Amino acid sequence: MSAIPEAAASSSVEARKRHMLESALTVFARHGYRKASMDDVAQAAEVSRQGLYLHFPTKEDLFRETVRHSLRQAQVAVEAALLDGSVPLEDRLVRAFDAWIGQFVEAMGADVDDLVNACRTLLGETVDEAKHQFEGRISDLIGSSGVAAAYRKRGLTADQLASTLCATAEGLKCIHSSRRAFVDGMRIAVDALCLPAAGRR
Questions:
Q1: Which residues contact 192 (CB under 8 A, 6 or more apart)?
Q2: DSSP 8-state code for residue 47
């Protein structure tokens, strides 16, 4: 077999696996960890149970890889948003929060606590570490902008401002059921945060 067909076959396998993980994310988000079954995921991904088990021997394995895949995808989208120097700071921040949290708002079912517990049990500190890294990226962007300078005289740091935005985002995620409402809420929070620096730009 030549290298080209082998590469194509590998790419096809990875695409199928990615589709399974994205389908699993939808199922876990909707039903929670305990109520979601491998049958549910196989049906959503339009694959056989055997095909699903070939890649993920247990539901625990599937859940771990689903969360890791989701975090990687979100991190890529966040980085793209934060590094887009063609748009204003406010837009970059809102887009980053939408990529990190907003995209999941409408997908989450009622049993969020079950998912949180499953993440802690099966992935340890993985999710918390990813959240910490995200907050650090927000802090870095704020710190490199005029916003940090505007608050410095009041004794507030970029880390504190980033932490406040992240806490606001978590709160908005809990009270809104639509992505649009979440984004609108983050727009207000970001615009309010950046207002003292508006005259400096």
A1: none
A2: -
What does the domain layout of the chain look like in residue ranges?
Answer: 3-200
Residue in the structure block whose two tokens are 């204003």: 88
Residue 157 has pLDDT above 50, yes or no: yes
CB neighbours of 32 closer than 8 A, spacing ≥ 6?
109, 110, 111, 112, 114, 115, 118
124 φψ region: left (φ > 0), alpha (ψ -120 to 50), beta (else): left
Res 12: pLDDT: 82
Which residues, in sequence order, are CB contacts of 24 under 8 Å at separation 6+? 36, 41, 44, 45, 62, 63, 66
pLDDT attached to residue 134? 98
* SS3 category, 72: helix
User: What's the one-letter identity of residue 126?
Assistant: T
For residues 164 and 159, give the distance between their C-alpha atoms in angstroms, rounded to a whole number.
Answer: 9
pLDDT band with cut points at 50, 70 and 90 for residue 113 = confident
Residue with tokens 């907050």: 135
Per-residue model confidence (pLDDT) at position 125: 95
What is the CATH code of the structural domain delimited by 3-200?
1.10.357.10
